[in-house]
């Protein structure tokens, strides 16, 4: 078994754990962290796919970089919403 | 068994364990901390897979900034949601576990079929056109030239996150009192971070690095200064704050329109975001510089922006 | 193509200007929308005269560049987006002063228009991911314009939307891993020839993500709360346009990338999901006590027709089903805009969220009530409205084939349900014995503006011939 497949599976595992955490919760903050795990899993798969060739696939790397920024933006917004939700609770 | 094999095996197992621990940790605080560690180890794995750019970005953005955001969320959480949430029934919890296991299993099974020597991918095409892209680093070329439209939209996503956060901004927690040692530290650390940020930006033209990593570093410097009360408030109602936040998208749009006008020929189709060959390098540098500043300020406001700063 | 580009860029420029120059945000954003409407009209005309066009962004070769495709269909969707945005923006100019955060509505609305236009034009799997993410974030930000009461629904919407995007992105990663391209047209030349477990699973993942984002049954549960709590113009945009974006990508994926056997299998699922959406959505709309929730559930039900059309179009070569799909999307967008604006207007003037507030509305707010009834007519599918045209296209090919009569029955039941919930409103409105007194004097101009899209959807009948022609029916 090559290390590429191993890292692909690790990515799949991280994605699955993130999915489990997202559905299970129960706290909203944990769901947000789990979403980030899901994202990390997808990016891991993409990075491992990029490593199959020599030189590594820069196009996939660029896509992951775009995805990372999108993920952190969405997380920031979700956390702002969560803060407002908690502040509104008596 | 070679050392590489054991390294990969252990790294992978550690990643899985940390991910599982994040999800299963009893305390949210523990979950957040484990998640940040997970992000750092993930960066190591990516560096191992030949993605130095991404390792840098993951450490700065994925672990660093997301971690900072999560910690500040945690501080609120401690007050509001400390009461135990009603546990969901064990049956639905089993169902969730079963579903995730099943999907992960199918995913692993399908990944087994991925060709390890892909017949076709886009990198050769990218390398072929790299010479005309105005930058020597393929990742930067993809981000700012070949697929610049994605990057422009992504900057808008970042802008939107700030607009959304402004709309729902809620009272901040009190930042702690000045701590002399921390103040001294931040005075020294911040200029260094800013210097490193611009180095990373400059290097991005030829080697790993670029606007996003640089922006994240810049934001880190600003956050450190801010937490030590060494930075004046950045009010959204100030024109210059808005201008810098918008500058990334603006630079892109202005560069796009200017290029279209420079190359305009009545009979031909305009190609959006086509940089003229002789202008490509300065244009990309200009966009990257504006984007770095915009990303830095936007992330700073997202992490430490106070409601009175964000409101208009 | 240049005009299509302008139709994307004008709202973006307007949004930037509106953010920087806040005092004139409303006028800048409105102006950008109206100008982009003109551009979209010219773009459609050009496509009709010169045929489909494409643009490689950055003028790089296919594969490396993101490709934009302006076909009859995408030009029409672009036009639909700008028309709805122009109508909603005009309505908002007259009525948004009531809202406290009005200044923030304008840049968001312009960005929404831009991201949708970019989505229609794109043919790139990853670019679609970015536009979907953009669309989701704008939509959630706009829901939060309602303030505190909207935060819970908005957060739920955001989290589910993000989970959907990540499923979609994983599918994209798998497909790129297998075929090494992101352009749909290039993928279509490689993919159906070499089907594997992996491509199937990738398509399933992408479908699940898109169904979650598009609120398609059974992943629709977030929609009623989010759409009902938003301010009226926002609800109109969300229901009319935003949920159609994922639907469009779903159709592009299944119609172009899947093998015949696989798409037949998927068609069965889409038919089932569509039927369930129609029946459960219609039933919930009938039962809910709140007016806006009812209109939101009606969106769930109407998306069921679109799913049915997708399922039937995947099974059969008859182009009528495809035509029905796009007619449904157009007719529903116009009718739903009218319905949400009218209900929002009445909710504001009459006070209250319950359906009961409409008691005697035909007397107190006749124009808004008329708009709601006319839009409802199209939702039911009364001739000669746009809704009727779409349903007719769906029914005609079903009629001769008795194996397909089950779907005929489903459509009949769905129609009965929608007729029931529309008549529930109309009957209440004509109960003039003891009408609900308005809290504020009803304004006439916003009510008339709410009526315009409903009249347009009835006017579709006059253009039906050209629609059939344009969409290749």
From TrEMBL, chain A:
Gene3D superfamilies given in the database record: 1.10.287.3510
Molecular function GO labels: NADH dehydrogenase (quinone) (non-electrogenic) activity
EC numbers on record: 1.6.5.9
Keyword Glycoprotein (UniProt): no
EC primary class: oxidoreductase
Keywords (A to Z) from UniProt: Membrane, Oxidoreductase, Transmembrane, Transmembrane helix
Membrane topology: Multi-pass membrane protein
Classification via InterPro entries: NUOK/Mnh_C1-like (IPR039428)
Subcellular localization: Membrane
Pfam family for this entry, one: Oxidored_q2
The protein's name: NADH-quinone oxidoreductase subunit K
TrEMBL record, chain B:
InterPro entries per UniProt: CPA3_antiporter_subunitB, MnhB, MrpA_C/MbhD
Na+/H+ antiporter MnhB subunit-related protein domain sequence ranges: 186-300
Topology in the lipid bilayer: Multi-pass membrane protein
TM region positions: 6-23, 30-49, 55-74, 94-114, 148-168, 189-205, 211-228, 240-262, 282-304
Protein name: DUF4040 domain-containing protein
Subcellular localization(s) per the UniProt record: Cell membrane
Entry annotated with the keyword Nucleotide-binding: no
Keywords noted in UniProt: Cell membrane, Membrane, Transmembrane, Transmembrane helix
Family: Belongs to the CPA3 antiporters (TC 2.A.63) subunit B family.
Boundaries of every MrpA C-terminal/MbhD domain copy: 14-77
UniProtKB/TrEMBL annotation, chain C:
Bilayer topology: Multi-pass membrane protein
Domain NADH:quinone oxidoreductase/Mrp antiporter transmembrane: 122-413
Cell compartments where the protein resides: Cell membrane; Membrane
Alphabetical keyword list: Cell membrane, Membrane, Transmembrane, Transmembrane helix
Principal location: membrane
Coiled coil stretches, renumbered: none
Residue intervals passing through the bilayer: 128-145, 157-179, 199-222, 234-254, 266-286, 293-314, 320-343, 364-384, 404-427, 448-471
PANTHER family: NA(+)_H(+) ANTIPORTER SUBUNIT D1 (PTHR42703:SF1), NADH DEHYDROGENASE (PTHR42703)
Similarity field: Belongs to the CPA3 antiporters (TC 2.A.63) subunit D family.
Name used for this protein in its record: Proton-conducting transporter membrane subunit
Organism: Alkalimonas collagenimarina
Lineage, uppermost ranks: Bacteria, Pseudomonadati, Pseudomonadota, Gammaproteobacteria, Alkalimonas
């Amino acid at each position: 078994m090559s290390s590429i497949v191993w890292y692909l599976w690790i990515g799949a595992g991280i994605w699955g754990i993130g999915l489990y955490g997202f559905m299970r919760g129960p706290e909203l903050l944990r769901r947000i962290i789990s979403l980030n795990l899901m994202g990390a899993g997808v990016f891991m798969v993409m990075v491992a796919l990029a490593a199959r060739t020599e030189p590594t696939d820069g196009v996939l790397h660029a896509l992951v970089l775009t995805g990372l920024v999108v993920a952190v933006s969405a997380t920031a917004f979700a956390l702002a919403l969560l803060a407002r939700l908690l502040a509104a609770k008596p | 068994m070679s050392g590489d094999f054991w390294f990969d095996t252990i790294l992978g197992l550690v990643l899985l364990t940390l991910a599982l621990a994040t999800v299963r940790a009893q305390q949210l605080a523990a979950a957040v901390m484990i998640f940040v560690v997970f992000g750092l180890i993930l960066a190591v794995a990516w560096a191992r897979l030949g993605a130095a750019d991404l390792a840098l970005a993951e450490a700065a953005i994925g672990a660093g900034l997301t971690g900072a955001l999560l910690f500040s969320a945690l501080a609120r959480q401690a007050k509001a949601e400390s009461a135990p949430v009603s546990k969901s029934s064990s049956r639905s919890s089993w169902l969730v576990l079963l579903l995730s296991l099943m999907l992960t299993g199918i995913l692993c099974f399908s990944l087994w079929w991925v060709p390890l020597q892909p017949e076709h991918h886009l990198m050769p095409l990218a390398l072929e056109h790299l010479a005309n892209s105005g930058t020597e680093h393929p990742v930067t070329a993809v981000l700012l030239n070949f697929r610049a439209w994605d990057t422009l939209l992504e900057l808008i996503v970042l802008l939107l996150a700030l607009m959304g956060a402004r709309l729902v901004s809620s009272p901040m927690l009190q930042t702690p009192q000045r701590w002399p040692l921390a103040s001294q530290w931040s005075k020294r650390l911040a200029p260094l971070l800013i210097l490193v940020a611009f180095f990373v930006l400059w290097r991005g033209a030829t080697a790993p690095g670029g606007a996003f990593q640089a922006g994240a570093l810049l934001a880190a410097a600003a956050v450190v200064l801010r937490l030590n009360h060494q930075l004046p408030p950045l009010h959204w109602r100030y024109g210059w704050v808005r201008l810098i936040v918008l500058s990334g998208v603006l630079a892109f749009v202005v560069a796009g329109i200017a290029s279209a006008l420079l190359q305009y020929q009545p009979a031909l189709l305009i190609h959006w975001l086509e940089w003229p060959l002789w202008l490509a390098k300065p244009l990309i540098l200009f966009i990257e510089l504006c984007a770095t500043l915009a990303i830095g300020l936007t992330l700073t406001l997202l992490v430490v922006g106070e409601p009175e700063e964000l409101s208009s | 193509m240049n005009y299509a580009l302008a139709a994307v860029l004008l709202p973006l420029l307007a949004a930037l200007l509106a953010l920087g120059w806040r005092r004139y945000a409303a006028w800048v954003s409105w102006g950008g929308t109206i100008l982009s409407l003109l551009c979209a009209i010219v773009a459609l005309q050009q496509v009709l005269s010169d045929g489909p066009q494409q643009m490689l962004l950055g003028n790089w070769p296919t594969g490396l560049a993101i490709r934009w495709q302006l076909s009859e269909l995408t030009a029409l969707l672009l036009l639909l987006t700008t028309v709805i945005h122009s109508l909603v923006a005009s309505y908002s100019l007259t009525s948004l002063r009531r809202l406290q955060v009005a200044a923030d509505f304008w840049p968001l609305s312009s960005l929404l228009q831009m991201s949708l236009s970019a989505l229609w034009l794109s043919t790139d799997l990853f670019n679609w991911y970015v536009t979907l993410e953009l669309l989701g974030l704008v939509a959630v930000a706009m829901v939060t314009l309602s303030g505190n009461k909207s935060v819970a629904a908005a957060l739920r919407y955001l989290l589910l939307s993000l989970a959907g995007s990540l499923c979609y992105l994983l599918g994209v990663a798998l497909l790129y891993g297998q075929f090494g391209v992101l352009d749909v047209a290039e993928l279509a030349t490689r993919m159906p020839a070499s089907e594997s477990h992996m491509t199937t699973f990738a398509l399933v993942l992408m479908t699940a993500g898109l169904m979650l984002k598009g609120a398609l049954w059974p992943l629709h549960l977030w929609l009623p709360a989010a759409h009902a709590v938003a301010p009226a113009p926002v609800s109109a945009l969300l229901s009319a346009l935003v949920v159609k974006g994922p639907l469009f990508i779903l159709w592009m994926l299944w119609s172009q990338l899947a093998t015949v056997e696989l798409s037949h299998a998927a068609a069965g699922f889409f038919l089932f999901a569509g039927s369930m959406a129609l029946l459960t959505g219609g039933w919930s709309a009938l039962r809910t006590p709140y007016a806006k929730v009812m209109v939101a559930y009606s969106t769930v039900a109407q998306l069921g027709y679109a799913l049915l059309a997708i399922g039937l179009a995947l099974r059969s070569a008859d182009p009528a089903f495809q035509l029905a799909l796009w007619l449904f999307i157009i007719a529903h967008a116009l009718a739903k805009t009218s319905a949400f604006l009218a209900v929002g207007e009445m909710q504001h003037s009459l006070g209250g969220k319950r359906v009961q507030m409409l008691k005697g509305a035909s007397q107190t707010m006749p124009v808004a009530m008329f708009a709601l009834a006319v839009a409802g007519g199209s939702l039911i599918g009364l001739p000669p409205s746009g809704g009727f045209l779409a349903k007719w296209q769906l029914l005609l090919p079903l009629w001769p084939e008795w194996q397909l009569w089950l779907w005929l029955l489903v459509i009949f039941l769905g129609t009965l349900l929608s007729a029931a919930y529309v008549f529930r409103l109309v009957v209440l409105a004509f109960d003039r014995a003891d009408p609900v007194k308005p809290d504020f004097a009803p304004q006439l101009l916003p009510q008339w503006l709410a009526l315009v899209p409903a009249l347009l959807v009835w006017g579709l009948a006059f253009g039906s011939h050209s629609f059939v022609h344009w969409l290749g029916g």
